[in-house]
Amino acid sequence: MRRQLTAILAGLLLLGAGITETKACTGITLKTPDGKPVLARTIEWGGSDLNSQYVIVPRGYRQQSYVPGGVDGMKFEARYGYVGLAVEQKEFVAEGVNEKGLSAGLFYFPNYGSYETYAPAKKDSSIADLQLVSWILGSCTTVDEVQESIAQVHVVAVDPRASTVHWRFADPSGRQVVLEIIDGKPRFYENKLGVLTNSPGFEWQLTNLNNYVNLFPGSAPTQQLGSTLLAPFGAGSGFLGIPGDVTPPSRFVRAAFYQATAPQAPSAEEAVRQCFQILNNFDIPIGIESARGEKTSGLPSATQWTSATDPTNRVIYYRTMRDSRIRSIDLKAIDFAHVAYRAVPLDNVDRQPIEPIDIH
Questions:
Q1: Domain range for residue 140?
Q2: Are 27 and 53 in contact (CB under 8 A)?
Q3: I need a labelling partner for 197 at 20 to 30 A (CA). Which of 1, 140, 168, 205 fits?
Q4: Whole-prediction pTM
């Protein structure tokens, strides 16, 4: 167990250290005509393969939290079954949805936020930040319950040198909140916009949108500048000036405007497809995060997977850097009272399949 924990700590430190590697996530939300939400997000890490898995967790499944020095933190048991997408360890669910439709996900939050200092005397109520999603999905059905539950625990880092994270929680009613832990205290923000990226904090990101009040969909009108006629070069000039880099503030702005101007999909499944199309714009290619001459990881993309969640119909979808087909897991088809716990790699291929066209 000590050897396993040492390996986990090394992985966590790799994830949280090194500002030259891409640590990024972009989240958006679309709604159907009847107001039902569909949540989608990317997860990026350019340093190494996250060895991501999907996990199916039955009701009654018991876990114990990692804490500094061991796996003897808070014990918790799943009241509700859920499906999650995990990174590095099967216990570290980064995105998921439970059988009641509660959605939860973590987003990297480097250099911002600060958890409580771990106190061994409080280990029975201490839970690792990377296991918070698992605990919440197994315990809660609404955003209100999430807020009540968070007040009862101490969120700590397995390794204090690793990056902090913040979280997005949403329920089928359409209500969505962001949780950030600042100076050891949980702070919830109502996320009516439905967008989330990384650092700085959520309130700052909302304020920063005001810097782009000039943007609008469509084309800028032709205008006369003295004796010179100014006309747009092509379509979309109303968005001239929207930031195109991959920093979290720029991705937040771009996601907010792309989401807001997307035509409303007629159904949840069409909204899911639309989410994947929008998030194509946030794929981060390997290389741009590395300095000239720096060795790259050899991954096909820094965007290791993209997911979408339909909490109303209880379906989670994903595609990966190695297989761009959209795959789905329907929670309604799972008997969470009897299904066995399982953790399965997201891909069974190591490169993007190419299908030849038979012309005969």
A1: 2-17+26-345
A2: no
A3: 140
A4: 0.93
